[in-house]
Structures are given as C-alpha cells and as structure tokens.
Amino acid sequence: MARFSTLANCRLSFRLCLVVALITCTVLLPARVTRAAATPTRIVIGFPSPTPRVAPLWIAQDLDFFGKYSLTSQIVLVRNNQILTAGIAAGDIDVGYTGGTTVLGAAAAGVELKMVASFVSRGRGYLMVRPEIRKPADLAGKRIGVQSIGGTLWMYVMLTLEQLGLDTARDRIQLLVIGDQTVIAPALESQVIDAAVLTSRTYIPGLKQKGFSLLTEVTPPMAATGIVARKIALQKNPEILENIMKALIEAEYYVLAPSNKSQVIKTIVKRLKLADASAAEEGYADTLKEFDAKPYPSIDGLRNMQRLLAMQNPRLNDVNPANLMDITLMRKLEESGFLAQLRARYRE
C-alpha cells in the first residue's frame, strides 16, 4: 500500500510541477503549430534527463515533425522518474520519452504502461574516475554519483561494478544521489563524488582535460530510451499514438542522416547549453552508434533492467517483461512501408 500512496503523492506533486513546466515551455520552447484546416492535437511529452539521446525529441519539436503529423507538442523535463511515471499514469503526460525504468516502476505499483518503441536496445556507460583511482580496487570506500536509486544511471553503475567484480556493501562504495549528468559531471570536478558512470561522451573530453580518466566502458542490453504510453491510451487513441511515433521515428532518421549532422550538433549544443561544440560532437557520435533503425522494444533490455530493479523491489520478480511491451503500432509502421519510406528519404 505504501507504494500506491507514493505514486498518488507523486501525481499531486507532478500536477503542480506540470503547471510551472508548461508555462516555462510555452515561454522558452514554443512549439511551431502547423496551420491547417484541422486543429492539431495537443500532446505533452515528458523526459527524465537531458542527454544527446534526446536529440530526436528536440529535433521533432524544432523542425516541427509533430506538426507534419497533426500534432502540437509541449516537452517537459521531469527529472524524478517516480513523478514522470505518475504523470503518465494520471494522463497528465501523454507519452514518456523514456525507457524500461518507467514501465517496470509502474508495473511494481500496479499501473499498466506499455513500451511501444525503443530507440536504444544496447546502451553505453563510461566510468569516469578521479586521477588517483587507477584500478577497480581503488574504488573501495569511494563515492559514486547517481541520479536516483533505482534509476537508469544507478543501473549503469550497478552493471559496471558487477563487470569489475565489485560490490557496494562489501567494498564500502557509497552511491550518492546527485542529479542527472549535467549535474554529475560538475560534482565530479568539485570532488563531491569520486566517480560516475556517464551514458554519453559529451562531458568526457572536458573531464579528461582536468585529469580525470576513463576506467572502463560497459555496453549492456538496456531498453533505455524509447516511447512509453498508458495501455488505455493505446486502446482508445491509437491514431494519436501512431502519429507521435511517426514524428519521433522520422526525427530519429533525420538525426542519423550524416547530411544533417550540423543541425543536430547545433540542437544538442543549444539544448544542453554547451559552450564547446566538440562536446556535442562526442554525444552525437554516441547516438549514431546506439540508435536502432527499427526501434522495436527490446525484451532482452527489459529483462536486464528487471533483474537489477528487483534488487530494490522483489515484487518485480513476478512481472513478465513481455507484458510491458506492445509492438502493434511498430509492426504496423514497418509493414505499411513507413520505415522504408524514411530510409529512402534520408538515404545519403
């Protein structure tokens, strides 16, 4: 019952935050509305962390791919995954640009969310450490920053430690909740933490210049970035969800086309408020390696995330990851020739 109360409280908190966020988005990030005979459907899309992986979402708004598919969007940054999950569950957010953490967390609370697409089925994590840490054993007794306990960055940390043969309890490793990667990188520089696992190379060149080093890299199966919606929305409004998917998948193809590199780099620099475009280049290169041209939800990625999250919530052992996915619309888009059309349109 405590879990349900927490979700209910998150819904209340989210609705208060949403009012502020939507006002901010309206002022700072206005969506361009397509002038057409029919009134575009207004949608709200939430995402948990600003990284280069969010480029398709930003591009879809900046270049008005949403308008192309009769939509007008509001994009909301919701850094707390519980609040993001609650917002989707309550219907205040139509779609989450998020991943397995969200659908698994919802399942543990008895809420039915579905992952309908997954842009990244195998993630990348980079363990950055202070100069004096030269081998895995040196991490004993050290502090590693995460965005939240049970969140995606936490999972990357746990997978990295697992790969290195380390254990948080046995090796006295502290996991400190710091924030997303825009906050974690400066925390590493200011010695608030000793190490961090980053999922983008964006901040790595700057850290290396200051003496930090890359200790190891992990590439685990992860359903980390995709499209998540309520089961009831999928049943009642499949056309709207299909149009959202079309806009985001076309934006993904735009991002992956080499001829659009300068525009994508410009978008990443602007959205992440980077001073150096070379940092955006690193993140862009990661995106090209990670994104799937056929973004079906990844069952292997969900299972891997379930295994890790079950450490925090044993109830997840009873969840069937296959029930958290719905490939109906993704299959429809492929069989209708939509993906083939995008390949032809953005072919070099």
Descriptive notes:
With 348 residues, this protein is an alpha/beta fold. The chain folds into two domains: 2-122 and 222-345, Periplasmic binding protein-like II (D-Maltodextrin-Binding Protein, domain 2, 3-Layer(aba) Sandwich), CATH 3.40.190.10; 125-218, D-Maltodextrin-Binding Protein, domain 2, CATH 3.40.190. It has 15 helices and ten strands. The strands form two sheets. The protein has a five-stranded mixed beta sheet, with helices on both faces. A five-stranded mixed beta sheet has the order 7-6-8-5-9, sandwiched between helices. Strand 6 (143-146), helix 6 (152-164) and strand 7 form a beta-alpha-beta unit. Helix 1 packs across helix 4 (81-90) and helix 2 (55-62) crosses helix 10 (238-256). The relative contact order is 0.17. Residues 1-5 and 18-37 have low confidence and may be disordered.
How many β-strands, per DSSP? Answer: 10
Helix content: 40-55%
Structural class by helix and strand composition: alpha/beta
Rounded radius of gyration (Å): 20 Å
Lay out the secondary structure.
Blueprint: H1 2-28, E1 41-47, H2 55-62, H3 65-68, E2 71-77, H4 81-90, E3 95-98, H5 100-108, E4 113-122, E5 125-129, E6 143-146, H6 152-164, E7 174-177, H7 181-189, E8 195-198, H8 204-209, E9 213-218, E10 221-230, H9 231-236, H10 238-256, H11 261-272, H12 277-290, H13 299-309, H14 328-335, H15 338-345
Parallel strand pairs: 1-2, 1-3, 6-7, 6-8
Antiparallel strand pairs: 3-10, 4-10, 5-8, 5-9
